[in-house]
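Technical annex B. To support the medicinal chemistry partners, we prepared a structural model of the target in complex with ribose-5-phosphate, based solely on the information shown next.
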Amino acid sequence: MAIPCAHFMASEKAVLENGILMGSPTSMASPVILSQDELKKIAAYKAVEYVESGMVIGLGTGSTAKHAVDRIGELLRQDLDTYPVVDLAIDGADEVDPFLNLVKGRGGSLLREKMIESACKKFIVIVDESKMVKYLGGSGLAMPVEVIPFCWKFSAERLRKLFEYAGCVAKLRTFPENGEPFVTDNGNYIVDLYFKKDIGDLNAASDAILRLPGIVEHGMFLDMATTLIVAGELGVTIKNKQKN
Ligand SMILES: O=C[C@H](O)[C@H](O)[C@H](O)COP(=O)(O)O
């Protein structure tokens, strides 16, 4: 089903599919300034074009995924039958590197999302262009790690030491209004890691984190995304990657 990008005139829509430019902006078109939320919506609507009747869909959380949920609900009311099977996950991300590795969980939902999204045949990531980074951690914002509350300080210090070479700072996530720890939907805490430098080999970093006792999961989603949809001021870019 073709879903028009309401905020783009046809002539302004540039779509890159597997690196091939499918259209380009015209020089005559006047620039359209879109808000970050409008870009998120464009990426989400594009992702919903991948949904077919009969699929089981895994839907994530966050302000970007919400647009996909709303759109699917709208289409279900209009066109689609409900089916008891889901083959495709659609979710937002906090960071995306050039290889489609992700940071997720700044909203606190990483464990359940990782469980669902690692089991899906297709996982479409929808972001606005502000989420693109050269390397994971490159935004300078949090890379979340879900930890067992027992001895969390000990776990946080071990995480910090693991990435000392990258200038890591580890902070328990708390509510600013009362300083109480944020508790995940699994009853755990989140330690946010901040890096000053590239942490290097992501698989090695993942293994090292998961080997620590008291660590439940981390927010690096490596080699999981099969499609990336990025909405930016110049249009929608789509990148596909084969799942291992
Ligand atoms: O914990 C939250 C999820 O991983 C979200 O998918 C992620 O934080 C992106 O959220 P948003 O689309 O609101 O930026």
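Notes passed to the chemistry partners:
The domain at 10-132+223-238 is CATH 3.40.50.1360 (Rossmann fold).
Residues 1-27, 80-85 have pLDDT under 50 and may be disordered.
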